[in-house]
Amino acid sequence: MNKTLTSVEEISKEDKAYLRFKYNDNTHQDYLISEERTISKDDETHYLIDEKNKEEQLNKRLKTGDFQRCIFLIAVNFFKEKFTNNVNFSLATFTQAADFSFATFTQIAKFSSATFTQTAYFSSAIFTQTADFRSATFTQTAYFSSAIFTQGANFHSATFDKILNLATAKQVKLNLKHTIVER
């Protein structure tokens, strides 16, 4: 069994705020939250997006397409969103449902090494350029039904702990090499 992130929660210890990452092997790791709402994990800065800063953070990041190393402590609703720039969700962590249904990605979409701890919805999403989901982890159901991958999708070494739904998905090239689907 691979060690998989199952949940993330904000906790308080000694009057300081921490983010606790819980794993499927009953272990956890705590990270101190800075005043800027960031944590340092694996020598990298990760950015928290929560109720306190969601409007500011989402608006800023939608303009640039840079969501790399963001930790979403809220449900994410990108339903019917049109991403016109390259979008980078690499190393992002989604702790609540993530809805990208009917979203359009007109440039490269990177979700490499992203973690989805709740249901991920990509139903009827349109990817006009490469969709990169290499080493992504989906601990709940991942819906890609009726998604369109015009230039292909790369799921190399991705992990699906529940159900991967690709029903009627259309693609030019789909790489599922070393992908793990567990149930």
Q: What do you see in this structure?
A:
The chain is mainly beta. Helix content is 6%, strand content 41%. The chain is built from one helix and 26 strands. The strands form five sheets. The protein has an eight-stranded mixed sheet, with helices on one face. Strand 4 and strand 5 (44-49) form a beta hairpin. It is globular.
State the low-pLDDT regions, or none.
none
The helix/strand class is: mainly beta
Question: What is the count of helical runs?
Answer: 1
- Secondary-structure element order, as H and E? EEEEEHEEEEEEEEEEEEEEEEEEEEE
- The spatial strand order of the largest sheet comes to 4-5-6-10-14-18-22-26
Mean pLDDT: 91
Beta-strand proportion: 35-45%
| CA(first)-CA(last) distance | 12 Å
**Largest beta sheet, briefly?**
8 strands, mixed
Q: Rg, please?
A: 16 Å
Estimate the global geometry from the Cα principal axes: globular
Beta strand count: 26
Instruction: Classify the helix fraction into a percent range.
Output: under 10%
